[in-house]
Amino acid sequence: ADLDLSSPEDVYFTVHVKKDGKLTIPKGTKLTTDMDIQLDEGGQLLLNGTLKCGRGFVHVMDGSMTVGKDAVLDARYVVVDEEAIANVSGVPNSKIYLTAMTDSLAQLKSLVSKATKYFCVDTTILEQEITLQENLTIPKNFFLVIWEGGLTVPKGITLTNNSEYPVYIQENSALTIESGAKLVNNGDLAFYN
Q1: What is the model's pTM?
Q2: Strands 78-81 and 182-185
Q3: Which of 190, 185, 179, 177 is nearest to 132 (CA)?
Q4: Are 79 and 56 in contact (CB under 8 A)?
Q5: Span 145-159, pLDDT tens digits
Q6: Is 50 helix (H, G, I), strand (E, B) or coil?
Q7: In angstroms, rounded to a whole number, what is the distance separating the alpha carbons of residues 161 and 123?
């Protein structure tokens, strides 16, 4: 039997699949929803039928998601925390919105390199100061937030921003372009307090 979980236009809900919980959509079954589906620690989504998420999306926090070979996933994207990416199978990379917190240059560079693989990579520099040691290009589908930390571009280094998303620099944070460094900004910088 098909199931339609709709909410009024001005109301937005999240369906949580909690620890040891399982949401199974068997072959031949269609679940239509405009709500978010969040897979918390230990929560599982097993999709062998059809999942149609109108306004909503699936968020794999610490849970797992398996999409069967003949299943239909009709969603804008699936948000996956970096720590949970190994728990996601059968979801096309073009639908994965990868999120991560970073506190190191090595991890930031690794996340930038993953941007070509996924729909979007959303990264927050959290409570750390990161100094570039070589040129860095922020790709088109990379969403960067500097939150109570900083990113420094030292002399002789170029930071190129090609992102279609604004680079957010939050209050008590900094993007520092030192004398002799270069910022090539082909996108937007947004300062929030």
Answers
A1: 0.85
A2: unpaired
A3: 177
A4: no
A5: 998 889 999 999 999
A6: strand
A7: 14
